[in-house]
Backbone:
């Protein structure tokens, strides 16, 4: 099988250590994400998986076996493998119950460490590929297997980066060799894998210290060593080069990405030239070659090599996104707020605008291709993507700036950017809407309720609608996040949850609203969305709802297209069509009263 594929985000090919020409990646197959192989020698691909709801997780081991995870609609499943050229699917380890995937690490001599979890615990199992597994660790809460030494003797397990057990190094028998804290004076800590060198057990780390992110490492001989000379002002991730002496660092900064090669022995940092935009993934290969998955707002993702290595050809959808794409910086109380602005081509004056609100909150909008941006710009809307306070890519202080309250800080930034664009004559104040998913959907609901005069329409996809109810029914990892953001549980600080909850302000919503929710959503559970919709109905608020028979993370292409079509048509009717048909008086324009939409 050969051809061109839409390569999914963060799906840079994983390479067989024994043959760098053999790779595994995830890509599009008839609207589903599936696992493929790529053989650079023959320049051919082979589709490995073909499942009704797609396959998200794939890997390749040193011997070239292809691994994949058969996740069900609840996120649980098993790891399987098969030979690179094809063959029977075999269980990764025998005697392992179904669970959520929480890391897979593959050593020489076909040893496997896999993390599997449920709502309460994470279990680490270990054994030879395809053989019986033994349990080596069980920990409370969410943790991830983040590495294994080439000889299979040590396993790295990552917990919460700001916890007392940020990283635990285990022996293959489960004996703890080190417990590294991320909650002390040295700051948060992340594990990024062992050096790929035989006979050497050195674990690569990233540490947040004050306002910087530093490279660090741990080894049995030296313990933890922090490379304070190698500091970055915004978030980074890193990977060892194959020879284990240098490290490739990918930095997210102001909505874009940069690459740096760090020479540890020489204590030098070498910037690597890449096109302006976003690197969704990057991986060092033999010699000085680096593979990276690049995109910008106007260009769909493509896999590139600094050395010209043959790579799977990515499918461009489209060749180029229409419109004019620029940056906007708006003054704010904690520093300027950065937005990515996309305008329709040939736009001579102010136009209707949709603010796309990113989720997280520990995430950011990128100078990267987004089908929603493309669809809206092609439909004549300006698109505004705001990296509000709390976003990544702007340093630790920005990420922790919640001075006006959880959610309220972020909607204040949305309002200030809107005012800036209105003052510049870029957008029409009577035709501005919001669209967000997950945490972004939460901010849409909160903004419509707390700032009803500013917004004329909203689309909230899989949102948090009631902060207290969501906390009680969501996943343990998100409960922990809530408690960190709010400073306690809803029973301990009920007034903080109420003040930041969209449900508190539901009756004040005046703009027409489309709520898209998922029946099997474990992160933003459906019950709290139904309660919010019930409050809207009782208050007579104009709204529509759309229910998907999916979970929270992703959905099939048909569902994605259905949501995209429904939302674009909804926004067009709520913003442009209504104002063309019945212009408002100046008073109602200032109030942002859009009229009613079918309930």
Residues:
């Amino acid at each position: 099988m050969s051809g061109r594929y839409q390569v999914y985000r963060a799906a840079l090919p994983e390479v067989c250590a024994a043959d760098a020409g053999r790779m595994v990646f995830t890509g599009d197959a008839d609207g589903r994400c599936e696992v493929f192989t790529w053989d650079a020698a023959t320049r051919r691909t082979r589709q490995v998986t073909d499942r009704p709801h797609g396959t998200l997780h794939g890997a390749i081991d040193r011997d070239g076996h292809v691994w994949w995870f058969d996740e069900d609609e609840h996120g649980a499943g098993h790891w399987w493998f098969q030979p690179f050229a094809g063959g029977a699917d075999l269980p990764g380890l025998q005697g392992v119950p179904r669970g959520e995937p929480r890391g897979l690490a593959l050593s020489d001599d076909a040893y496997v460490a896999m993390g599997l979890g449920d709502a309460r615990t994470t279990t680490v199992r270990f054994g030879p590929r395809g053989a019986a597994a033994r349990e080596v660790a069980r920990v409370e809460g969410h943790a991830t297997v983040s590495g294994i030494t080439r000889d299979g003797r040590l396993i790295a397990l990552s917990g919460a980066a700001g916890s007392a057990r940020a990283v635990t190094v285990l022996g293959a028998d489960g004996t703890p060799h080190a417990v590294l804290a991320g909650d002390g004076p040295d700051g948060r800590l992340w594990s990024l894998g062992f050096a790929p060198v035989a006979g050497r057990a050195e674990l690569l780390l990233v540490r947040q210290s004050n306002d910087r992110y530093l490279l660090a490492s741990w080894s049995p001989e030296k313990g933890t060593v922090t490379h304070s000379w190698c500091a970055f002002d915004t978030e980074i991730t890193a990977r060892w080069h194959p020879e284990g002496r240098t490290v490739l660092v990918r930095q997210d900064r102001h909505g874009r990405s940069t690459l740096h090669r760090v020479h540890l022995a020489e204590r030098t940092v070498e910037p690597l030239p890449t096109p302006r935009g976003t690197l969704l993934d990057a991986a060092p290969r033999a010699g000085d070659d680096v593979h990276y998955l690049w995109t910008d707002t106007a260009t769909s993702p493509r896999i590139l090599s600094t050395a010209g290595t043959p790579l799977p050809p990515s499918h461009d959808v489209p060749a180029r996104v229409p419109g004019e794409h620029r940056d906007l910086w708006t003054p704010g109380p904690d520093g300027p707020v950065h937005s990515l602005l996309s305008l329709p081509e040939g736009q001579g004056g102010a136009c209707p605008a949709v603010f796309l609100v990113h989720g997280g909150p520990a995430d950011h909008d990128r100078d990267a291709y987004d089908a929603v941006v493309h669809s809206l710009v092609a439909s004549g809307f300006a698109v505004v993507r705001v990296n509000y306070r709390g976003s990544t890519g702007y340093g630790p202080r920005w990420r922790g700036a919640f001075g006006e309250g959880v959610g309220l800080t972020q909607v204040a930034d949305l309002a200030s950017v809107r005012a800036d664009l209105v003052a510049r004559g870029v957008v029409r104040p009577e035709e501005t809407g919001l669209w967000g998913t997950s945490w972004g959907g939460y901010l849409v609901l909160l903004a419509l309720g707390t700032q009803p005069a500013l917004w004329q329409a909203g689309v909230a996809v899989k949102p948090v609608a009631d902060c207290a109810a969501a906390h009680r029914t969501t996943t343990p990892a998100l409960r922990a996040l809530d408690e960190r953001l709010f400073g306690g549980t809803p029973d301990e600080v009920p007034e903080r949850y109420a003040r930041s909850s969209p449900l508190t302000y539901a009756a004040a919503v005046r703009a027409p609203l489309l709520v898209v929710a998922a029946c099997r959503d474990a992160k933003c559970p459906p019950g709290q969305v139904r309660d919010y919709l019930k409050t809207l109905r009782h208050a007579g608020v104009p709204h529509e709802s759309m229910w998907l028979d999916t979970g929270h993370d992703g959905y099939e292409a048909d569902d994605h297209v259905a949501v995209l079509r429904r939302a674009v048509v909804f926004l067009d009717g709520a913003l442009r069509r209504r104002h063309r048909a019945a212009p408002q008086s100046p008073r109602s324009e200032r109030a942002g009263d859009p009229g009613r939409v079918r309930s």
In short: Residues 1-11, 581-599 have pLDDT under 50 and may be disordered. The two ends are 48 Å apart (CA to CA). The longest helix spans residues 557-581.
